[in-house]
């Protein structure tokens, strides 16, 4: 479990320190205070020297899948904006269990001239895959040299060009600080993405899951994974008493799909960390308490630490109050923009409820 995280340099964050982290951490704040950036840094702890992982993290901010961003632009967006000269850094540290860690990415920008062979290599083609002979073209390109350090030890290098579209085969040996980190985006449910395999093999939790699904559809019976013989892909079929045959999951509303995603993602994160960005998206206020209570109670049983961001006071209120016996394990973290950067207020759920109910303090 993460007990402390100090983000010295990442995107627009500088010297942001999170201490006394709990089993459940609710992160709120105005836009551009760095809520999602905190989740990204935590996610990166699974393999901080893996370019492909950073590429996934960096591309999520694109609102449209049709917008293509190069690997170079993606990586450039992760480094702090205010660079000194041609060098920049991503730097963060913290404590997990009894172990301390420190991660450093150093990026150096320059300009180069590439020939056809170098362009092919940069895009991940092997020598045997290249067309021969090469035409003698030259291409101007910017280049970002990235070096990785974990706990002071060098653990790899990558070179990323502005004209590069693919990622070459990786040679860095992955360094794992955390072993199991699951990230759930605000819109992931819209793609019918769920992690039901783990849920279906746990009879006790599956029975609880069915009861929660009946809050959305009183006639809900079960959900089953079915192999499509033509495409060899897996589809999820929902059985309901009000329909004569099973319906594909995509026939149901976003609320049910989001609930399925949240509950199944918790099981997928067993003995790890679950990151929920804008966790309340698509969840109606009438079922928030039931869903969030299930998640928080079972997070303790499954040894899962949760970090969740939100703009919704109803959702925040529901999380803080849904499990009175566990309020000392729930942290309310509020990020506030000031002239001296982003400041942090961190209190447990008991104190947060008092500040909200007795003093009318805005927790967001």
Please characterize this protein's 3D structure:
The protein has 364 residues and is of the alpha/beta class. Strands 2-1-4-5-6-7 form a 6-stranded antiparallel β-sheet. Strands 8-12-13-3-14-15 form a 6-stranded mixed β-sheet, sandwiched between helices. The mean pLDDT is 88. 35% of the residues are buried. The chain has helices spanning 35-44, 51-59, 71-78, 116-122, 196-200, 203-213, 254-268, 285-301, 313-321, 349-357; strands at 2-10, 13-18, 24-29, 87-96, 99-115, 138-150, 153-161, 181-184, 220-227, 234-240, 247-248, 273-276, 305-309, 330-338, 341-348. The protein contains 10 helices and 15 strands.
Summarize the structure.
This protein has about 375 residues and is of the alpha/beta class. It has ten helices and 15 strands.
Number of helices: 10
- Characterize the main sheet: 6 strands, antiparallel
Uncertain spans, ≥5 residues at pLDDT below 50?
none
What is the average of the pLDDT values?
88
Radius of gyration: 23 Å
Beta-strand level of the residues, as a percent range? Answer: 25-35%
Q: How far apart are the termini? A: 25 Å
Strand order of the largest sheet: 2-1-4-5-6-7
Number of strands: 15
Structural class: alpha/beta
The helicity comes to 25-40%
- Order of helix and strand elements from N to C terminus: EEEHHHEEHEEEHHEEEHEHEHEEH
Categorize the overall geometry: globular
């Amino acid at each position: 479990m993460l007990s402390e995280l100090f983000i010295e340099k990442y995107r627009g964050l500088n010297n942001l320190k999170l201490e006394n982290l709990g089993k459940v951490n609710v992160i709120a704040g105005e836009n551009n205070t760095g809520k999602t950036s905190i989740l990204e840094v935590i996610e990166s702890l699974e393999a901080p020297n893996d370019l492909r992982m950073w590429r996934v993290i960096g591309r999520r901010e694109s609102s449209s899948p049709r917008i293509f961003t190069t690997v170079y632009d993606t990586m450039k967006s992760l480094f702090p904006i205010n660079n000194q000269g041609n060098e920049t850094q991503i730097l963060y540290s913290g404590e997990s269990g009894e172990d301390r860690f420190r991660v450093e990415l150093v990026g150096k920008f320059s300009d180069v001239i590439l020939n056809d062979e170098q362009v092919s290599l940069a895009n991940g083609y092997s020598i045997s895959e290249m067309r021969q002979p090469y035409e003698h073209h030259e291409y101007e390109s910017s280049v970002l040299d990235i070096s990785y350090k974990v706990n002071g030890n060098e653990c790899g290098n990558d070179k990323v060009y502005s004209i590069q579209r693919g990622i070459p085969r990786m040679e860095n040996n992955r360094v794992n600080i955390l072993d199991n980190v699951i990230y759930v985006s605000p819109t992931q449910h819209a793609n019918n993405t769920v992690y039901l395999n783990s849920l279906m093999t746990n009879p006790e939790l599956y029975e609880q899951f069915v009861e929660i699904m009946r809050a959305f559809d009183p006639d809900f019976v079960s959900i089953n994974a079915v192999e499509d013989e033509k495409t060899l892909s897996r589809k999820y079929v929902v059985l309901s008493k009000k329909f004569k045959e099973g319906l594909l999951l995509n026939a149901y509303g976003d609320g049910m799909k989001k609930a399925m995603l949240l509950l199944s993602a918790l099981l997928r994160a067993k003995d790890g960390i679950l990151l929920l960005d804008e966790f309340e998206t698509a969840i109606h206020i009438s079922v928030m308490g039931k869903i969030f209570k299930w998640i928080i109670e079972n997070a303790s049983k499954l040894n899962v630490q949760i970090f969740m961001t939100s703009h919704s006071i109803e959702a925040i209120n529901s999380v803080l109050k849904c499990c009175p016996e566990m309020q000392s394990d729930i942290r309310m973290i509020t990020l506030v923009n000031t002239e001296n950067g982003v400041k942090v207020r961190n209190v447990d759920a008991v104190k947060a409820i008092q500040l909200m109910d007795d003093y009318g303090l805005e927790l967001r």
